[in-house]
Amino acid sequence: MARVQVFPVVLLLVMVNVEAGHRLCNRPIGFCSIFQNCSITCRRAGYVRGVCQGIFPRRCICYKRCKP
């Protein structure tokens, strides 16, 4: 169920960034649970956003703009 909810959000983020001319690179930084907010963790690490993805185990994936 969680996978179905995450996919549209990730797809929307990719579409917005492709239209803006920016490509995002991602990096898994660890495991997460429903109680951990990956977005805050990723911003503190210098990334622009983060998403908790997967079913088991769930991974915190951080995104930033790729260097040309």
UniProtKB/TrEMBL annotation:
It holds the Pfam family Gamma-thionin. Keywords: Signal. Residues 1-20 form the signal peptide. Residues 30-66 form the Knottins-like domain. The keyword Signal applies. This is Knottins-like domain-containing protein.
